[in-house]
Q: What sequence folds into this?
């Protein structure tokens, strides 16, 4: 209305749309090199090669295999111990213990989260315990584990459980709590309750958080295990990877120490970037719940 | 085509009052609803009465915070009244159930880990209402009704807001519930999409004559979508009026009757403020 006008009116106009058929290329496929450079695995692979070359050059320049073996020597040792050395059986021992501890940790985490979602006392219990034990490094419990369970697998499993349990329960529980109210109500609207409600609604809805918990738990467990094996690998009969590294150090076989570390890294990478990546791609990414 | 047919249908109804109302489906009597928070006891609605008849498009209209959602939740069975009773086909409502399907305003109501088709199938399967090939056929036909057949195998995150809302509506309708409960379903959409969705909902109603309870805070939407409007007072929600609004479509927004009804409702909703203004 007139009261809202500041100055004189400008003329109005209408237009016929211009022909847009000759704007040039609107969409074209990327070239091979553009596509390669756009792929994260490829870029990482290039990065790894560069690092290996730097390592090789520096070690050759240093030329002190006792302190810093070359990349090629490390690879050769790794290959030798893998094919007809102890590396496979050592790795296998470690993984066995890891699976045992990780599995037990997850089972306990499931119990704790069930308690936490089903009652307020359970919630308080979980929050208190996680607040207490989460900051405690699992390795710090090793002396206690040795007193209680002695040398051997039970002690290792005990510390792995400790390293998995709190991270996984905490993530799962906070995942459950952040499930949108409307989604919960839809679930109950269909008459779902109890276990069916948890399995069909809560777990998938909280899956991004649960998966994050599983990843953190795995990383903690793997680190804790290797460290624990290093501490009391000395007296165990069939040692794991930590023991392999420890042994090599005792005999000043530095290339073997490197080969052991390389194995630890490779397994870590494999689980993170192959197994967990595959799970992510099939679940949270396909569902658009992540990125 | 269907749309125009529907509109003339409604236009004919304009002015003529239906002679015999259909039987009562939902009875709400003296319902008081309260929330207990650690600090307060909040009374959301106070002694609300109304009846919803079959094939009603029953709109609950009221200012924000007056307890519309709470009332709908109670009908859904998510809350029990502290006073009064809610009955559907004569039976007291005590828990949520698939005979009352809810559609919410939020897009999160779709399960992101299921495709559009799986989302529609899910309630049918878990409630055991429809099974196997029958369920699938019904789901596909529900998706066809909301023009989403092409998107059956797409995950919800790839859909626009309006499409997500259509999936939610298809999912609820496919269950063939006694009553459809919609809580401001179009409030999060842009104006053009909202208008389109309102028309589509009316088009669906013209085909199927389902019963729906529709919550809104927009007077225009209430008149367009509803056949009967329950006007609630500001917090705590009490019944102020119940009005007929059959026969209005997007075509009749300029009709004087539309303006008159709109003005009447407006006066109900803002009478407190009007009184204050008059006094000062
Ligand atoms: N979960 C809750 N806890 C406590 N108070 C609530 C809760 N939900 C709603 N309320 C209160 O109840 C009243 C009605 O809310 P609601 O039904 O959501 O209103 P509307 O849908 O009409 O906007 C409001 O005063 C609101 O603050
Ligand atoms: Mg509301």
A:
């Amino acid at each position: 209305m007139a009261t809202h006008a500041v100055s004189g009116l400008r003329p109005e106009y209408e237009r016929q749309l211009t022909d847009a058929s000759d704007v040039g290329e609107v969409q074209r496929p990327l070239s091979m090199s553009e596509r390669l450079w756009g792929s994260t695995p490829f870029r990482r692979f290039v990065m790894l090669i560069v690092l290996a070359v730097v390592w090789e050059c520096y070690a050759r320049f240093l030329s002190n295999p006792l302190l810093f073996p070359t990349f090629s020597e490390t690879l050769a040792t790794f290959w030798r111990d893998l094919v007809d050395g102890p590396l496979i059986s050592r790795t296998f021992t470690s993984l066995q213990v890891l699976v045992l501890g990780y599995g037990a940790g997850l089972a306990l985490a499931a119990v704790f989260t069930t308690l936490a979602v089903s009652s307020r006392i359970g919630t308080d219990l979980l929050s208190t315990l996680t607040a207490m034990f989460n900051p405690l490094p699992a390795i710090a419990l090793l002396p206690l584990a040795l007193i209680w369970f002695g040398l051997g697998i039970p002690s290792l499993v005990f510390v792995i459980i400790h390293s998995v349990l709190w991270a996984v329960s905490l993530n799962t529980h906070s995942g459950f709590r952040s499930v949108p109210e409307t989604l919960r109500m839809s679930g109950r609207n269909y008459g779902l309750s109890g276990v069916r409600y948890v399995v069909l609604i809560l777990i998938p809805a909280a899956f991004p958080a649960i998966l994050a918990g599983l990843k953190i738990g795995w990383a903690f467990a793997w680190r804790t295990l290797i460290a624990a094996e290093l501490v009391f690998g000395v007296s165990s009969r069939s040692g794991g990877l930590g023991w392999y590294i420890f042994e090599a150090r005792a005999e000043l076989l530095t290339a073997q120490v490197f080969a052991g570390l390389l194995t630890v890294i490779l397994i870590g990478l494999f689980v993170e970037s192959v197994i967990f990546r595959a799970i992510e791609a099939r679940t949270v990414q396909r569902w658009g719940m992540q990125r | 085509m269907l749309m125009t047919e529907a509109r003339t249908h409604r236009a004919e109804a304009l002015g003529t009052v239906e002679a015999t109302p259909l039987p009562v489906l939902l009875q709400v009597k003296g319902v008081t609803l309260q929330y207990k928070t650690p600090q307060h006891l909040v009374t959301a609605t106070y002694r609300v009465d109304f009846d919803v008849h079959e094939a009603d498009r029953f709109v609950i209209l009221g200012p924000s915070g007056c307890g519309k959602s709470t009332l709908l939740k109670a009908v859904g069975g998510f809350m029990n009244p502290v006073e009064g009773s809610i009955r559907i086909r004569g039976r007291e409502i005590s828990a949520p159930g698939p005979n009352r399907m809810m559609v919410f305003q939020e897009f999160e109501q779709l399960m992101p880990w299921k495709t559009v088709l799986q989302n529609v199938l899910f309630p049918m399967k878990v409630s055991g209402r429809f099974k196997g090939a029958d369920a699938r056929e019904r789901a596909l036909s529900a998706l066809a009704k909301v023009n989403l057949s092409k998107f059956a195998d797409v995950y919800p995150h790839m859909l626009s807001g309006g499409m997500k809302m259509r999936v939610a509506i298809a999912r609820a309708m496919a269950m063939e519930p006694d009553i459809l409960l919609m809580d401001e379903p179009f409030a999060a959409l842009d104006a053009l999409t909202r208008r389109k969705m309102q028309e589509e909902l009316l088009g669906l109603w013209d085909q199927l004559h389902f019963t729906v309870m529709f919550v809104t805070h927009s007077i225009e939407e209430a008149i367009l979508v509803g056949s009967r409007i329950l006007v609630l007072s500001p917090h705590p929600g009490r019944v102020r009026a119940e009005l007929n609004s059959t026969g209005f479509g997007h075509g009749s927004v300029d009709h004087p009757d539309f303006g008159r009804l709109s003005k009447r409702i407006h006066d109900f909703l803002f009478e407190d403020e009007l009184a204050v203004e008059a006094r000062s």
Chain A has a mean pLDDT of 89.
